[in-house]
């Protein structure tokens, strides 16, 4: 079975799949008040719909065996790990057929908002260290009902992620 090595998250390596921003350590210009600094519009996406924030809790598996992937055709998806670093596997867009052979896995620091472009293959993030990852998923409302294609991998397409 194929294994995929988790790699550090860098702008260059993640660029084919989307972008990210460290929300805990913002940089660049800020709009400042007496007691606050506001860093506007650091990660943007156009959805054309009402956006929704949905918590997700993911238990750490004994083995990071990946047997399926999903994509959304009309929207980007954003994920913010809250209590731990997360491991996120992604593969480039394709015409309805997953590309597990092109999958990359990234170690995303907690409080780093990741935006995956529309049609990028992925599945739930995995905890890097904690017994359970708490994360925030940001998508247009009801995307999981009307724009979510989940594909089960054939036996030879399944892979294991290793740190």
Describe the overall structure.
The chain has a single domain (about 1-160), classed as Ureidoglycolate hydrolase (Jelly Rolls, Sandwich), CATH 2.60.120.480. The protein has about 160 residues and is mainly beta. The protein is globular. A hairpin with a 4-residue loop joins strand 3 (about 30) and strand 4. Strands 6-15-1-10-9-12 form a 6-stranded mixed sheet, with no helix packed on it. A 5-stranded antiparallel sheet has the order 2-11-8-13-5, with no helix packed on it. It has a two-stranded antiparallel sheet with strand order 3-4. The chain has helices spanning about 10-15, 145; strands spanning about 1-10, 20, 30, 35-40, 50-60, 65, 70, 75-80, 85-90, 105-110, 110-115, 125, 130-140, 150, 160.
User: Termini separation (Å)?
Assistant: 16 Å
The CATH superfamily title: Ureidoglycolate hydrolase
The amount of helix comes to under 10%
CATH class: Mainly Beta
Helix tally? Answer: 2
Oligomer: single chain
What's the architecture in CATH terms?
Sandwich
Task: Provide the succession of SSEs.
Answer: EHEEEEEEEEEEEEHEE
Task: Please mark out the parts with pLDDT under 50 across 5 or more consecutive residues, or reply none.
Answer: none
Structural class: mainly beta
Main β-sheet description: 6 strands, mixed
Q: Which term fits the overall shape?
A: globular
Number of domains: 1
Assign the CATH topology.
Jelly Rolls
Strand residues, percent: 35-45%
Number of strands: 15
Spatial order of strands in the largest sheet: 6-15-1-10-9-12
